[in-house]
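Task: fold both queries, return tokens.
Query 1:
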Amino acid sequence: MKANVYKIELMVIDFEQMGEAAVCQVLEQNKYLSPSVVASAERAVEWDDDHPLNNGKTWRAAFDELFKEQAE
């Protein structure tokens, strides 16, 4: 059987306060895909509607800044 394999970096905003492990589990338990979470990291932010992650023009820079030490 042929399968496509994807390496995917996701940003998930956890409004439900599920926690990192639960979010990973939800992604992995999807019955239509077969993802495996290889690595994950968590950062806390104070959220409001004006947060840079909630803006199409600024979310990527804000995301990169949150995880900059992980990339180094």
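Query 1 returned. Query 2:
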Amino acid sequence: MPFTPVQSEVRNALDQAERSVGATGQALLLGDPDRVRAATRELHDGAHALALALRGVGGGTALAASLRDRLVTVARDIGIQREALLRRSAVVDRALQSLVPQSPTQSSTYCGALGRYAGRAAAAPAFRTV
């Protein structure tokens, strides 16, 4: 693939990713769950399209410095928004817990995420030295 079409494809995908990052940030500020869901879906699609466009780039030297800088900014912003979404999810979980307390027999929200290590705090350690 020639150099110019690859640069154009990356530039278009980067434009889409930047728009999606902006829309997700705006949706997070507004706090509208439907808008957040739609914006994060669009951000996921934009990041995927950018990843596919970057497959055509051979090594880090093929990108222009301006594109590299924009790519670093988008990657940083996606990380920041991911953390914001995780924080928002924790706040919603706490608010839900205060409104609808779980019975002691139900597992906590994060127990399932721990997988086979959940509930083993009092048990033998998961990893042993030989």
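Both queries returned. Flag for query 2: The CA atoms of residues 117 and 123 lie 10 Å apart.
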